[in-house]
């Protein structure tokens, strides 16, 4: 039973290199990702560097290295630097557009449910989610939020895979409690609007 749940989690995450990275199947790559994210966060957040200056300096160094490599290769009859063909294929753009279209349509459907259908449950859920995001946004800046998100995405899935049964049980209990509270709020708001209409 444990192996089937692990396979399903791996398949849920895409089943490829990204799933291997997130679930720590290739420990060296995952550890390098954690170390790299921590280094980037430290560089920008604690050391005080700005993203444009770091990118400009890195590109300046890369261009200088490629230029001098090409010049020295022509003088010493050595091979030129091996550069891949630098272009984005139509297939990649179409896949990205298709995925973006799905998410945009989901957001528009939620907006339709709130504005046209006047669905109170969707409205309250959206308000609660936006309030939580706003509250968390007040506690951290954007770069720290991205860093926390990367750390969660690299550390939580392996723990979930290891303790999946216990986590599912606790999440199910929390979901039922939250659903009851949400239903109570929705029913109370429905009663108050009915009372206002009768008055």
From TrEMBL:
Xref: Pfam families: Reticulon
GO biological process, one term: response to bacterium
Localization per record: Endoplasmic reticulum membrane
Reticulon domain ranges (all copies): 18-199
UniProt-listed PROSITE patterns: RETICULON
Membrane-spanning segments: 28-44, 50-70, 126-150
Record's protein name: Reticulon-like protein
Source species of the chain: Oryza sativa subsp. japonica
